[in-house]
Design a protein that fits this description.
This protein is an alpha/beta fold and 245 residues long. Helices cover 32% and strands 22% of the residues. The strands form three sheets. Strands 2-1-3-4-5 form a five-stranded parallel sheet, with helices on both faces. A two-stranded antiparallel sheet has the order 6-9. A two-stranded antiparallel ribbon has the order 7-8. Strand 3, helix 3 and strand 4 form a beta-alpha-beta unit. The radius of gyration is 18 Å and the shape is globular. It starts with a strand and ends in a 16-residue tail after the last strand.
């Protein structure tokens, strides 16, 4: 079983890859909305957590899910943390969260994939990321082999992860999100928001919550690039994993 969170498709792809043809994947944001927080796996089954790094730590939907999670019979617990360069202290912070739930995180693997953080700097389009995406597939092959061998590691960084998370929590305001007259009222932004921060009003998106998860799903997945985050993003590229529907 693999629990995943994904804003623009990288972590979803990783979860699907690691699950193979028959493995079960669970969207953490969806599970939170539906109140599905108790899971019993077969004795000794591996359980994975796949999600992006946020400011060197762990984002809100993942934290909320883990804090409420009831998990039984897991034999090997691992994390695969997607990132543009490195996973920072996200593994250590997740280990700290899981420990409170009586779960030991056996290993945390960074998975370098194309960046989607256009809110803060320019990024590459998916069409420009061929080499990086091919590299990610090779990384996933290696990670899959290590998971199958049930490799374990001492995971540090819980304290540093808590510090990084405080920085993340300072960056969640939705005030700078806006929509241009390019908007076609398709509702994609509303449907992909994992925390219900976007709602369509009179055919246009409105940010109805003061804060969101900053997953960048709404701005990156808008089919006509009508959503902006201040003026800087008007000239920045968008990124969505190529096979994401």
């Amino acid at each position: 079983m693999i629990f995943y969170f994904s804003g623009t498709g990288n972590s979803r792809h990783a979860a699907e890859f690691l699950a193979g043809l028959n493995g079960e994947i669970v969207d953490m944001a969806g599970a939170l909305r539906e109140g599905k927080l108790s899971y019993m796996v077969k004795n000794g089954e591996s359980v994975g957590f796949v999600f992006p790094v946020y400011c060197g730590s762990v984002g809100d939907p993942i934290v909320e899910f883990v804090q409420k999670l009831e998990l039984k019979n897991a034999g090997y617990v691992y994390a695969v943390i997607t990132c543009g360069a490195g996973m920072g202290a996200a593994g250590g912070y997740l280990a700290k969260l899981l420990k409170v739930r009586g779960i030991t995180l056996d290993n945390a693997y960074p998975l370098v994939m194309p960046d989607n953080a256009l809110l803060y700097y320019n990024i590459k389009k998916a069409s420009e990321c061929g080499e990086a995406l091919r590299s990610a597939e090779n990384q996933l092959d290696q990670i899959s082999s290590r998971i199958n061998r049930r490799e374990k590691a001492q995971i540090k960084g819980g304290t540093k992860g808590a510090i990084f998370r405080k920085i993340y929590l300072m960056m969640l305001s939705t005030k700078k999100f806006c929509v241009t007259d390019k908007c076609i009222g398709c509702g994609k932004c509303e449907s992909v928001c994992p925390v219900g921060a976007v709602s369509l009003k009179d055919g246009k998106p409105v940010w109805v919550k003061d804060k969101c998860a900053k997953c960048t799903g709404c701005i990156n997945r808008c089919p006509v690039q009508a959503i902006q985050y201040g003026k800087a993003t008007e000239k920045r590229s968008r990124y969505v994993y190529p096979d994401l529907k």
